[in-house]
Design brief:
single chain, 234 residues, alpha/beta, 11 helices
Length: 234
């Protein structure tokens, strides 16, 4: 496929499995995923990841909530390896835009991955902020947008078209909900999609005959009925 698939998670064993299988072109992490993965030492985890994965982009997020501290953390994270992208949330918890920080970091040659983007206005603001000379990623939470009942496709298309003047700026489809999203994202020309390992595992079903899939599903239900010993009639 033309679209790049990034694995989204913070389980080192799972990341390395995907890496060695060659099924992904990059990795992203975030604090919530690290919490779920049981990571207790951020720097140690990042060091172990970057020791094993040196030739694909890996995104690590800042933790601070004020611009000065975010900038200090971002510059530190960027120093860890050449393949690191620094994830910067689009807003502080006070709702203050971080586009000024992104502009400074990108102008200084730091690769940023701007995250938690939802609106066309935000997308334009941060695409404007990144440098044409520095690789960058704009992560739009298409799945969460869809969770509100809003179709994310027009928002994604608008961002892709707006970023066309900056070849180093890649649009990323985030918060993927199902395997179909990969094909939707590729069809509209999205550059990257983040996909959890559980969804990536479903790729074994691609191309499967739907009648055979129906039959397999019926057989699965039958096995469960038998194992449970359920009976309706005496």
């Amino acid at each position: 496929m033309a679209i790049k698939v990034f694995a989204d998670g913070a389980d080192l064993a799972g990341m390395l499995e995907m890496y060695h299988e060659g099924n992904v072109q990059g990795f992203t992490t975030n604090p919530s995923l690290m919490k779920a993965g049981g990571v207790t030492d951020y720097r140690a985890f990042a060091s172990e990841v970057l020791d094993k994965i040196r030739d694909l982009p890996v995104s690590f997020e800042v933790f601070a909530d004020d611009e000065a501290s975010m900038e200090a953390e971002a510059r530190e994270i960027a120093s860890w390896a050449d393949n690191v992208y620094v994830k910067i949330p689009a807003l502080t918890t006070q709702g203050v835009s971080t586009s000024g920080l992104v502009r400074r970091l990108s102008a200084d040659g730091i690769k940023v991955n701007v995250t938690t983007l939802f609106t066309p206005e935000q997308n334009h603001e941060f695409i404007d902020a990144v440098s044409s000379d520095t690789p960058s990623i704009i992560s739009i939470f298409a799945g969460r947008i869809a969770d509100t009942g809003v179709d994310p496709l027009p928002i994604m298309v608008d961002a892709i078209e707006y970023a066309a003047s900056k070849p180093g700026c890649e649009i990323l489809w985030a918060s993927t909900r199902e395997l179909l999203n990969i094909y939707q994202a590729e069809k509209i020309g999205c550059h990257i999609i983040t996909v959890p390992n559980a969804i990536l595992a479903k790729r074994k079903n691609v191309g499967k005959d739907l009648f055979e899939y129906s039959l397999d599903t019926v057989k699965g239900f039958a096995r469960d009925i038998q194992s449970l010993g359920f009976h309706i009639l005496p």
